Amino acid sequence: MALVGFDFPYGYPVGFAAALGLTDTPRWLGVWREIASRIVDRDDNSNNRFEVAGDLNRRISGGCYPFWGCPPRCESVTMSRTKGGPGRLLEKRLTDVGKMQPIWKLFQNGSVGSQALLGIPYLAALRDDAVLSPVSRVWPFETGLGALPSRPKRDYLIVHAEIYPSLLPIQPANGEVKDAVQVRTMADHFAARDDAGELSTLFAGPAYFTPKDRERIEQEEGWTLGVLSGQQVQPNLDLQPLPASPHPSSAIRGTPRHRGGSGFTTAPGYRNRNGQTVLRSTGFAGTDHGQSVYVLQCGGCRHEYGANGSDIFQRRCPVCQGGKPGLVY
């Protein structure tokens, strides 16, 4: 079997296809076809990704949402350099743990949205290639979540899977390019797991998935190979099975359990009694006297939102727990 992985999201947060009015099934494929039909990626490395994103924003919100981030020359009434206001779509997918950036961000440090808009058409072309299509499958969309069957029980030779090389710690030598080291480290990691007979089990994903999670992942969002918890993956040193988190609420890297007392509630990683975790401070002024806005993430649905530092300890998710709307940041 050949494992082919690209470092960009293969799917968008649940609800994206519906927000665009796409009726194709499965939903992930409808999104792929929509993007592939609009993106123009030229030989001189120029492309129309900001224009496409702006048009998708127009269809969804009529403004600069959900996509954001562009050079000044590309700003328009539906595309802004900075993050737009809140909306009904989730900030991240279930698989986007730790420092993974939201797919809506298209520009500047850490952005991954442009890679998805430009990469998906090429991935779709590989999937639809007349020669490769009969022997290729896109995980988990076309295989489902589960350990891969043995070769005699498979009718495909190629598996396409989303990867995230930053999951693995690296040790670059002097002068080495970080990206190259990351790719080599990840390839070695997966190869070693395959040699140990452990690679196929990674395709099952975490053990904590609910039936609703599985439907969401297999039909729309996808999953990142190797993400089994919020902890950083260890390279192929001991080849022990990766730890699986018992519940999505602990799938944020370095998330401690609830800690009582004062002075802890604004620290990144603090999780309140309702499963809401502090990701970072924005530095922006809040709506409560003398308070700043902090970014919280729901441990259940992964929605991110702003909150005053003074009420972090009691916040509930505005999406799945009926909490008050988050602050703009």
Report on the structure:
- The chain is of the alpha/beta class and 329 residues long.
- It has two domains: 2-248, no CATH class; 255-314, no CATH class.
- It contains six helices and six strands.
- The protein has helices at 16-19, 27-38, 49-60, 113-128, 178-195, 211-221; strands spanning 2-6, 136-138, 158-162, 276-285, 292-298, 304-308.
- A three-stranded parallel beta sheet has the order 1-3-2, with helices on one face. A three-stranded antiparallel beta sheet has the order 4-5-6, with no helix packed on it.
- Helix 2 packs across helix 4.
- The longest helix is centred in the middle third of the chain and has 18 residues, at 178-195.
- The radius of gyration is 20 Å and the shape is globular.
Sequence-ordered SSE layout with sheet pairings:
Layout: E1 2-6, H1 16-19, H2 27-38, H3 49-60, H4 113-128, E2 136-138, E3 158-162, H5 178-195, H6 211-221, E4 276-285, E5 292-298, E6 304-308
Parallel strand pairs: 1-3, 2-3
Antiparallel strand pairs: 4-5, 5-6
Helix pairs in contact: 2-4
Number of domains: 2
**Content of β-strand:** 5-15%
**Rounded Rg:** 20 Å
The chain-level mean pLDDT equals 86
Structural class based on helices, strands and sheet pairing: alpha/beta
TL;DR of this structure?
The chain has 329 residues and is of the alpha/beta class.
Keywords:
329 residues; alpha/beta; 6 helices; 11% strand
